[in-house]
Design goal:
Layout lengths: L3 H11 L3 H8 L3 H9 L7 H13 L2 E4 L10 E4 L20
Antiparallel strand pairs: 1-2
Length: about 100
């Protein structure tokens, strides 16, 4: 199951508000706030699964503890198919617009 810290970090990585995550996941904003604070006692495994599915759909990969080397659970941005611009070493006077 994903952790409250992963959910907070995922929202930060995606620049996503609690309200935005609520719309994407179908989970009430108040419950998301409670889950993130560690006091989501009414949250069910299905709620956590809905949050995970929504965040994965938005481009995140959840890592289990030890999955990417030593360390705890974490996140990674999914690989995108589009280029996000030029690398600094590729800049020169002919492409300087």
């Amino acid at each position: 199951m994903i952790t409250p810290a992963q959910i907070r970090a995922a929202r930060a990585m995606l620049d996503l508000t609690i309200e935005g995550l609520s719309q994407e996941s179908g989970i009430a904003a108040l419950l998301i706030l409670q889950i993130e604070s560690g006091s989501g006692y009414d949250a069910t495994p299905a709620d956590y699964a809905a949050l995970r599915r929504a965040l994965e759909r938005l481009g995140l990969i959840f890592l289990e503890s030890g999955e990417a080397g030593p360390g705890g659970a974490g996140l990674r941005l999914a690989q995108t198919d589009h280029q996000e611009g030029m690398r600094p070493e590729e800049l020169n006077s002919t492409n300087n617009d």
